[in-house]
Amino acid sequence: MGEEQVVREIGHDEYDPKGTLALIGVYFVILLVMWVFMYFVEFLGNELTVV
Amino acid sequence: MSEALETGTPSFIDRFPQEASVVRASLISSFIALFLGAIFGLIQALHRTDVFRFLDSQYYYTVLTAHGVLMVVSFTIFFLVGVFTWATVRSLDRPLVDIRYTWAWYGLMAIGTLMAVVAILGGFVPSSDISADVLFTFYAPMQAHPLFYGGLAIFIIGTWLAGADWFRAWYAWKQDNPDERIPLQTFMVLTTMLMWYIATIGVAVAVVVFLLPWSLGLLDSVNPLLTRTLFWFWGHPVVYFWLMPAYMLWYTVLPSISGGRLFSDPLARVVFVLFLLLSTPVGIHHQYVDPGIAEGFKMIAMTNTMFLLLPSLLTAFTVVASMEHGARQRGGSGLFGWLRALPWRNPAFTGMALAGLMFAAGGFSGMVNAGMNINYLIHNTIWVPGHFHLTVGTAVALTFMASTYWLWPQITNKPIFSRPIALTQVVLWFVGMALMSNAMHVMGLFGVPRRTAEPQYQGFDFVASFGSITELRLQLALGGTLLFLSTILFVSNIALSTGTPRMSGLGKQLSEPLSPAADSPKVLDNLTLWFGIAMVLVVLAYILPLASIITDSGIVDPGVEAVPMVVDAANGLVSISAVSDAASRVVAAIVGVVP
Amino acid sequence: MNIHNYEKVWLMAAILLIVGFISTVTYGATAVGVDMISDDGGTVNASALDEDPRFSEPRVEQVGENEYEAYVIAQQFIFRPDPITVPANSTVTFFVTSPDVIHGFEIVGTNANAMVVPGQVTELTVEFNEPGEYGLLCHEYCGAGHHTMEGSVVVQPQDEFTQGGDE
């Protein structure tokens, strides 16, 4: 199966998960935007304020 | 998968045949529950959307109770005990202390499930007074037959004994390895079980002290707010009981399958300790719009819940970093290009990766659910099932199914029957869930309720601010149908795998983490310390709200009468012939739909 | 303990996000003034609602200038009163309870969303603006007829309300 096709070994000190940082950065932005939309537009913009 | 894999590593069943039997039995029980639960899920998806109805709507709630209990009690927890037995024995590299004890707890779990399921299915038989049309949450004063509560109690006791079994194995290992760090998989098993012991206090008290005696007529009344609060004491941490085995697989198996190594063992330990500490003192976030609970307690639950996001957010990083490591070891390069170097044709990999991706979305809807006042927007709407079908329904369920493709050969010495079908299955699940859950989230925002057989009302229409309700209903029905087909593919593939020829060489090694356990402070392994702190946090979160409920409305509330949830003959279905009528319509429907 | 720098960055970002969520919710609670349902409604004898001055006759009652109280019973499988009629531009405090099982109370398409527990009184204050009509439904399974449990909330222009009276 697939997992045997390792072409090079990468050790602890040589590895910087740049791709992960980039992806998680995108996720962070999505979370931020979605939260602002959900809270301020959907929720606070919804009818009938509960006080 | 007929290529021989010839690492020459002995497989798990070679080394530990007795334990492998228990693991297999647990997994098979799990998949039977999944299969039955899926049938009920399909019925619901078609019924509530008005695409196809063959049952009287009152039976929808019997179906819904069965679907909930089979999926989130039986399917998930039987899988957990199987995979935790495998993980403990494998990582300690020694057998369990007494296999008869092991079979005993498995037997209790099986008996408990059977009792509860019989009670629930009794709801389809109007002439019987055995029923449990109370849903997974069994809120008093709706009352089920004692068989239901008794079954649940016995099942939970089985899980407690299972935890003790793994602790015993660890103690035995510790005598022989006094200065070693706890192997990571065992660490995860033990911290999860400690979390479970704390969490089940709530539901055990609710069921054993109140609901079971009440259903037997030994107690005249219960306080519905009290039992509901005790339920949710357990009802939130149970989701971590579902998630933590999935996380264990993401942390300890997925990196190897990706061709790489776990990015950080220490951080994995920190994450599991955080779950032990924070999973339980948050349950009141399921009661944000309940009466009888002061706003201050809801605020505390909200803050604890928001911090409970942290271990999951950390997991996202560590797991993706481990996959990236594998991709780059496989020759991948570039900022995003490495994604293509991952083993997408391996169904175990693809299933787990898609499960993780879906969890990222489910995590977001969970953040909304946690937001105290924003809960007014979505409480008890179908947004909530939309959320949990992404989390337990995919992050957990799809990971369990995907990891089975990897684990099954090692506990049977038989390869999986068909890799292409397995790969199709995991992708189909993802697509079906994307459609169904998206429809649920959107309809929830328009106010469509959950737990309702016919969300089509006389006096008003739901207003869709984008799309249309009709479209969304069809989308939900379609998604649910695809999920059912995916379940069939999974169950058949595993069933057919019992007939493949026995082989050797199916053993698999797991890679070593990039950052080993030794890099972390020993205090992480101090389980007593973390357990103690967890108990303190739970007491702080719950003592005042519970005391306040008891002072205000009593430990029991004599003003509230029991409402036995038995199908009411007066509502129209009075004879067994009506049930067999319905049954033959089910058969006709299935035969008609499947050419 | 050795944590990679990138993961430290993410840890900071994650904590920021969490604090951000908590702050938003706090803003909603304080600046916008959205209160959560609490224990202010008190308790009640679920078997003796007909002896309670509020619930023996479910109704809407004026208690101040533009201030009203609505005493509502949620039971298998109706809401009382039905419809619940309130005037436009008013503040209405709902007191909701149940004589039988747990119900839900959702004014459809709005943020008015609550649980109704027998023995407890749910107190929920809502501001109504323009005239119109809302659906009301029960969103917590309460028995075989749960899906038929609906009502409505009718917001009448002020003058119509004073003349028509409350039911």
From TrEMBL, chain A:
Keywords: Membrane, Transmembrane, Transmembrane helix. This is Cytochrome oxidase. The chain crosses the membrane at residues 21-41. The keyword Transmembrane helix applies.
